[in-house]
Amino acid sequence: MEAESIPSHSDWSVSCSGFSHGGESLTSSVPNATLGFEFTGTSLDVYYEMGPTLGTFSVTVDENPPVIVDANQPTTFTFQNRTTIASELPSGMHSATIVCTSLICDVDYFNVPCD
Fold first, then answer.
1. Is the dihedral of CA 12, 3, 6, 101 positive or negative?
2. CB 49 within 8 A of CB 78
3. Rounded Cα–Cα distance for residues 112 and 89 (Å)
4. Domains of the chain by residue range
5. Distance from CA of residue 41 to its chain's centroid?
6. Are 73 and 52 in contact (CB under 8 A)?
7. How far apart are CA 99 and CA 59, in angstroms?
8. CA distance 22 to 31
9. Whole-prediction pTM value?
10. CATH top-level class for 3-106?
């Protein structure tokens, strides 16, 4: 699921890059910017950009504790980095919420394996 295909992402903007999956990602420079969506599956992975200007974001699935993703690395930019957010979820519909907890966040896409 491409991040930029999620409707209603007012504090996030589409960023074009030849390094992003599908050529686009969602970027926010608004602290505490929230992005929510629903998905059907048993797990969720997030793919994102890492680099010296990027920071942390959290991802919460259903009522589970948030997973904090630190996308900062001191010297280079890397793309399509993966973090597993949830696994072994019950089959069915779930909700996910991403919060940009720093000055800049970049989310590329989500992997949601079919049930």
1. negative
2. yes
3. 11
4. 3-106
5. 16
6. yes
7. 7
8. 26
9. 0.88
10. mainly beta
Lowest mean pLDDT: which of 4-18, 35-49, 97-111? 4-18
CA Rg, the chain, in Å? 13
Distance CA 26, CA 28 (A): 7
Give ∠ CA 18-36-1 in degrees, rounded to 5.
40
Query: How many CA atoms, within 13 angstroms, populate the side-chain half-sphere of residue 13?
Result: 7
49, 106 Cβ separation under 8 angstroms: yes
Q: Residue 5 and residue 11: Cα distance in Å, rounded? A: 14
In this predicted structure, the answer to whether residue 20 has a pLDDT above a threshold of 90 is: no
Say if CB 5 and CB 114 are below 8 A apart.
no
Is a pLDDT exceeding 70 seen at residue 52? yes
Compute the average pLDDT of residues 77-95: 94
